Amino acid sequence: MTLVAERWEQAMTPDEYLASLQQYREEFAANIARTRVMPGDWALFGQEPLAILVVTEDWCPDSVQFVPMVIALAQRVPTVEVRILRRSEHQDLADRYRRPDGSQAIPTFVVLDADLQELGVLIERPARADEELREALAAFAREHPELAGVDRPWAEIPPEPRLAVRAFLHGWRAQQFDRWTRYLFEDLAEIAKTARTRTG
């Protein structure tokens, strides 16, 4: 049994994960409810079984936004199943999945077939969403020169400007929700399709 298949057996169901949340439980549940699963999603995901193993933590804003989307997908498309692991409890598995710059970002969506063989992975957020986020943060920094250090990497932003950025992103992310849902579903479906075509 592969490591990812072994961890699938240990992972939480969405209901178990939701019950375990220490932060953002209400927002997480609201994001499940607001996720729109479209008829086209049935065509993308409803043909054969697909498993999505999510590695995450509940404090992560990307997790609060994107993990509910795949849970909603699994609730409404019977061929999709989702299980969830906390990165802090499965660091050895998380270490396998890094961004091109070497960073270990969450959430990580590991796409598996019906036999729990890995088809591919999406790390943190869809590339299109990542680009839009960078552009929005750059625009925010230009518009607020009074916030010293606001253009630095997140870990290096001083506390007060960081609060301002967090407040901005909370509202801005909410406005992107439906479009970013499309990005996520399309990218996950493409991973599955490409891998199946390659191995079929």
Kindly describe this structure:
The protein is 55% helix and 12% strand. The protein is built from 9 helices and 4 strands. Helix 3 packs across helix 5 (61-76) and helix 5 (61-76) crosses helix 9. The two termini are 22 Å apart. The chain has a single domain, classed as Glutaredoxin (3-Layer(aba) Sandwich), CATH 3.40.30.10. It is an alpha+beta fold and 200 residues long.
List the SSEs and their pairings.
Blueprint: H1 3-10, H2 14-20, H3 25-34, H4 39-45, E1 50-56, H5 61-76, E2 80-86, H6 91-94, E3 108-112, E4 118-123, H7 127-143, H8 159-175, H9 177-199
Helix pairs in contact: 3-5, 5-9
What does this entry show, briefly?
This protein has 200 residues and is of the alpha+beta class. Helix content is 55%, strand content 12%. The chain is built from 9 helices and 4 strands, in the order ααααβαβαββααα.
